[in-house]
C-alpha cells in the first residue's frame, strides 16, 4: 500500500516523515517540489504512473495568509487549482486523497463549536481559496478525506511557537493578540492522525475537523510557551483592533472533533500537553 506525500518539505510534510519513520512505515515517498509540483498536471500524471499510490497526502499549499491578500492569483492557483489537479490524478488512478484545509474557511463570529456541516464564510483570500480547493476536490473525487486544522506548529518550518521562542531570547517584553481564540495543533499529532486514518482502511470519506483538544487565545498560547520553557518576559495583551494585519482573521474558531474521533477511534491530546512535548524536543535538539 503505497503512500505519496505532496508538499513534503513543508511543516506538516516534515512531521509526516518523522512519524512514518517512528512507526516503521516504509512504503511512503516524499517527492520534492520539482518531482511533485501540484501545478504541473503532466508531472503529477508521471508521478502517479511511477508510484501507483493507494493514498496521496496533500500538504502542499500557499500558506502566507497576509501576503495572499496581494497575491490572490498565485494563492488561488495553488490552493484551488493545485487541489483540483491532484483530485483529477487521484480519480484517474483510483487513489484516495487526504487533503488538508483550514479553520479559516469559517468567519469566526460564532462562540460555539464549529461542525463540519456549519456554513463556511471565509474572511480572507487564503481561507476563500482553501474553501474553493475543498469544493473542487469534492466535485471531482468521492475518495477523499479533507481535514480542516488550525494553528499548526511543530519543530519544523516557521510557526508561532518558534517565533515566540526567538522573540523571548531577543526582547524583555512582547505584545500578543488576546481576543482571537482557537485551538493549537501540534503538526506531529496531526501527522499521526493522518497515518491512523490510512491504517483504518475506512471508506467514510468526507470533511473532518482536527486540532488539539482545548481552547486558548494567542496571548495564553504565548504565555504557555514562555512558562513551559522558563523564559522570563513581560507579556502585554494586545487587541486585534490595535494590531492591523492585511488579512482579517477569525475572532473565535473552535472546531468540534467528534466526527474524526468517532469514525477512526482517534485520541486527541490536550494542546498544552502537546506543546510541552514539542518544547522538550526543541530544547533537546538544540543541545
Ligand atoms: N500553518 C498553519 O497554521 C495551518 C493552519 C491551518 C491549516 N493549514 C494547512 O495545513 C497544510 C500544511 O501546512 P504547513 O504548515 O505544513 O505549510 P507549509 O510549511 O507552508 O508547507 C506547504 C508546502 O507546500 C509547498 N508548495 C507550495 N506550492 C507548491 C506546489 N505548486 N507544488 C508542490 N509544493 C508546493 C511549499 O513550498 P515552498 O515553501 O517552496 O512554497 C511548502 O513546502 C496546508 O494545507 C495549510 O493550508 C496550516
From TrEMBL:
It catalyses: dTDP-beta-L-rhamnose + NADP(+) = dTDP-4-dehydro-beta-L-rhamnose + NADPH + H(+). GO terms for cellular component: cytosol. Keywords: NADP, Oxidoreductase. CDD domains: dTDP_HR_like_SDR_e. Pathway: Carbohydrate biosynthesis; dTDP-L-rhamnose biosynthesis. One of its GO terms (molecular function) is dTDP-4-dehydrorhamnose reductase activity. Signal peptide: none annotated. One of its GO terms (biological process) is dTDP-rhamnose biosynthetic process. Its EC number is 1.1.1.133. It is an enzyme of class 1 (oxidoreductase). Residues 1-282 form the RmlD-like substrate binding domain. It comes from the Bacteria. InterPro entries: dTDP_dehydrorham_reduct (IPR005913), NAD(P)-bd_dom_sf (IPR036291), RmlD-like-bd (IPR029903). Belongs to the dTDP-4-dehydrorhamnose reductase family. NCBIfam families: rmlD. Catalyzes the reduction of dTDP-6-deoxy-L-lyxo-4-hexulose to yield dTDP-L-rhamnose. This is dTDP-4-dehydrorhamnose reductase. It comes from Dyadobacter psychrophilus.
Amino acid at each position: 500500500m503505497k503512500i505519496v506525500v505532496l508538499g513534503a518539505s513543508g511543516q506538516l510534510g516534515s512531521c509526516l516523515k518523522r512519524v512514518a519513520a517512528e512507526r516503521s512505515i516504509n512504503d511512503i515517498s516524499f517527492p520534492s517540489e520539482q518531482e511533485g509540483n501540484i501545478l504541473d498536471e503532466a508531472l503529477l500524471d508521471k508521478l502517479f504512473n511511477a508510484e501507483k499510490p493507494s493514498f496521496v497526502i496533500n500538504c502542499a499549499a500557499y500558506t502566507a495568509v497576509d501576503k495572499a491578500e496581494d497575491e490572490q492569483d498565485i494563492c488561488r492557483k495553488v490552493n484551488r487549482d493545485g487541489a483540483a489537479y491532484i483530485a483529477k490524478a487521484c480519480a484517474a488512478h483510483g487513489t484516495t486523497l487526504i487533503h488538508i484545509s483550514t479553520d479559516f474557511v469559517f468567519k469566526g463570529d460564532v462562540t460555539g463549536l464549529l461542525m463540519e456541516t456549519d456554513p463556511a464564510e471565509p474572511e480572507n483570500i487564503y481561507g476563500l481559496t482553501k474553501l474553493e480547493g475543498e469544493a473542487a476536490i469534492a466535485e471531482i473525487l468521492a475518495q477523499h478525506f479533507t481535514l480542516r486544522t488550525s494553528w499548526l506548529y511543530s519543530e519544523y518550518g516557521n510557526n508561532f511557537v518558534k517565533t515566540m521562542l526567538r522573540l523571548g531570547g531577543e526582547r524583555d517584553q512582547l505584545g500578543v493578540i488576546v481576543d482571537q481564540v482557537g485551538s493549537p495543533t501540534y503538526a506531529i499529532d496531526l501527522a499521526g492522525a493522518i497515518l491512523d486514518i490510512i491504517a483504518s482502511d475506512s471508506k467514510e470519506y468526507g470533511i473532518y475537523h482536527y486540532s488539539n483538544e482545548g481552547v486558548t487565545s494567542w496571548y495564553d498560547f504565548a504565555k504557555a510557551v514562555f512558562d513551559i520553557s522558563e523564559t522570563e518576559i513581560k507579556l502585554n495583551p494586545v487587541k486585534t483592533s490595535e494590531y492591523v494585519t492585511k488579512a482579517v482573521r477569525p475572532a473565535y474558531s473552535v472546531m468540534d472533533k467528534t466526527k474524526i474521533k468517532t469514525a477512526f477511534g482517534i485520541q486527541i491530546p490536550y494542546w498544552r500537553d502537546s506543546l510541552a512535548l514539542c518544547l522538550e524536543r526543541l530544547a533537546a535538539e538544540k543541545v
